[in-house]
Amino acid sequence: ASLSSPCSGIRVTKVDWQSLKNGVGHHTEEYPCPELVVRRGQTFTLVLELNRPLEDQETIIFTVETGPQASEDRHTKAVFQISEPEVGKNWTAVKEAETENTVTIGITSPANAVIGRYLMSTRVSTRRKQNDRKLGDFVLLFNPWCPEDDVFLDSEEERQEYVLNDSGIIFRGVEKHIRPQGWNFGQFEEDILNICLSILDRNPLYQDDPASDVSCRHDPIYVTRAISAMVNSNNDRGVVQGQWQGKYGGGTSPLHWRGSVAILQKWFKGRFKPVKYGQCWVFAGVMCTVLRCLGIATRVVSNFNSAHDTDRNLSVDKYVDSFGRTLEDLTEDSMWNFHVWNESWFARQDLGPSYNGWQVLDATPQEESEGVFRCGPASVTAIREGDVHLAHDGPFVFAEVNADYITWLWHENESRERVYSDTKKIGRCISTKAVGSDSRVDITSLYKYPEGSRKERQVYRKAVRKLFSVEASGRRTQLRRAGGRGLWREDLLEPATKPSVTGKFKMLEPPMLGHDLRLALCLANLTSRAQRVRVNLSGATILYTRRPVAEILHESHTVRLGPEKEKKIPITISYSQYKEDLTEDKKILLAAMCLVIKGEKLLVEKDITLEDVITIKVLGPATVGVAVVVKVTVVNPLLETVEDCMLMVEGSGLLQGQLSIDVPSLEPQERASVQFNITPSKSGPRQLQVDLVSPHFPDIKGFVIIHVATAK
Q: Where in this chain does the record put each Transglutaminase-like domain (predicted)?
């Protein structure tokens, strides 16, 4: 029989995955993988070459499957043939064009399909039994462009920022001095998509029951919760190991990372051994990479004065001595200078449409959730409305932005006394990078009503009621502190007595790294009678969690304040006092316990972040494939000569991997410039990060956005 006879065996001889056309249509052209990457709920095109034309009664049957023990019951396998176009919950194949020996097929997955790596095979239905022919693998991702997908996001500018932007900004510092830090998400770098898919397969739920775990990967709630557990190494061989002691031996300091790519590659190449070390912004940066890579719109959010409420009583109880120094062994709760988490955008089919939108996810291992260190997704709307009983982890997130900060003076006889301290309000300046620019956007109003408003107080009371009714009545006693120090929540709502003296620290000049610190404690007498005040001053270098590292100041003064008069106590902390104990956070906490002679007490605190200088300039226009000169100007912050400094340079689409450049010896406080070339490989806005690294002082970090034009 001739080859064109319907009786002869027909088979697919070649497949063209139309990678370029599909990549542009699905916004996946940046992924460098060999296999096709497409998004669910949207048609992609294949061209099949056959060994002869299809006859009328013949049709092509497709099989797609993902994960082990794939089955149609679990929606991890689908078998479908060329048919008329239809919109629905099933995979479909439609013939778009046909020539003598080729057929162009449009394949559409459901908008709720399981995401991941699929194998596609085909056979032609004839009277003969045919074996399936494997066509190859493709990867299916979430689709924020598809209105039927739970992760649909309606703004193109926001999709460009929260799904496709491969760099970003993480805000750090203190509430009064917020500093941007560049971060290279790098979700389109070599191997990153493959690594992100393997994170899902390393998840303990997959290890226990692979078929069941894969079948849940249609659901962004399930996937994001699994990723939030896997980005930290607690409970599993997750990606990053946390370390908050200020000692980073055997690993990399959290402040040395400039992005997620090196971390993810190290984890993968090291056979899933957790990477040392991370702190909150590292966990958030890595999780943002993974979720953007999988197709879920995600951003990084910083909360200043962030509560870590260990006992779920909505208050951060800090115990101090008569110098205002934190008593570590008594203080279980903490208030971090800042804490960084993620928000991802998707629908909450489990809670109802009013809770759709931004969801908090936090991979920093702070507290266990259902036995695992993970947090979220918690609906931002639910947090704002005080609906803390809704899944997942509402009470913890609500406390991070709403808890009361309460200071207790602990006496040697083990009694305690409430101390007035108005310096700290929890949950301030909640910040994220603006869409399409480097600016900081304050999103505090998404999390809570205006401080002190009637609505804010109503929500707070509602949250307290829900929190204590969610706890079984048998757990109420656990709200008391160990050793009987705890109070009922209602007692905590009564503020400490406002004293008749006020105090505030004021910087007399900007606090620069390597310089002496000059400031004053300004005290004011609010009464019409003279008062004597004993002032106990202490200062310590701290981590960003406000955990003290070493004491650098300890002195007392007695001050006489005239009626309604002010007085300044000058304070100088020399560089030699703090240089040995300064952590890479570059932070110092000052405290003044003011004891008014008739028994009132006032605690005044100030968090200081030391400043530094680095400037980055691009000398000329940047174009793909053309070298351009970058000029970096650095200043030696110290009053001594330093050697062994290096510039560490990184930027997706601007250079391959990392560049390290030696910096010549720097005289005391010398300003010096270093020039080097980069050759951009991708167009559009690109972030270049440059860090000055030295064994003599903490890293000085800078970044610049470079707009790269396509080659003419």
A: 272-365
User: Is residue 415 within 8 Å of 485, Cβ to Cβ?
Assistant: no
Report the binding-site residues. 402, 404, 451, 456
Would you call 218 a catalytic residue per the annotation?
no
* Residues linked to residue 94 through DSSP beta bridges, in sequence order: 106
Write down the pLDDT at residue 84. Answer: 80
**Do residues 492 and 480 make contact, with C-beta atoms less than 8 angstroms apart?**
no
Residue type, 684: G
Active-site option among 280, 288, 594, 645: 280
The verdict on whether omega for the bond into residue 277 sits within 30 degrees of 0, i.e. cis, is: yes
Q: Which residue has the tokens 């390597």?
A: 514
Of 339, 375, 387, 607, the active-site residue reads 339
For the stretch 429-486, pLDDT in tens is 999 999 999 999 999 999 999 988 999 989 999 998 888 776 543 333 333 333 333 4
- Point out the annotated binding site for Ca(2+): 402, 404, 451, 456
Q: How many CA atoms lie within 13 A of 423 on its CB side?
A: 24
Question: What pLDDT sits at residue 41?
Answer: 97
Selecting among 362, 393, 585, 607, the annotated active-site residue is: 362
- Token output for 593: 């316990």
**CATH of region 501-609:** 2.60.40.10
Residue 2 and residue 8 in contact, taking contact as beta carbons nearer than 8 Å: yes
Q: Which residues, 6+ apart, have CB-to-CB distance to 687 below 8 Å?
A: 167, 168, 182, 184, 651, 652, 703, 704, 705, 706
| Tokens encoding 195 | 């690594």
Clarify whether 362 is annotated catalytic. Answer: yes
| Tokens coding 373 | 């260190």
The CATH class given to the 12-141 domain equals: mainly beta
What φ, ψ does residue 210 adopt, rounded to 5°?
Answer: -60, -45
Domain locations in the chain as residue ranges: 12-141, 156-470, 501-609, 614-709
CATH class of 614-709: mainly beta
The yes-or-no answer on residue 339 being catalytic is yes
User: Which homologous superfamily is 156-470 in?
Assistant: Transglutaminase-like (3.90.260.10)
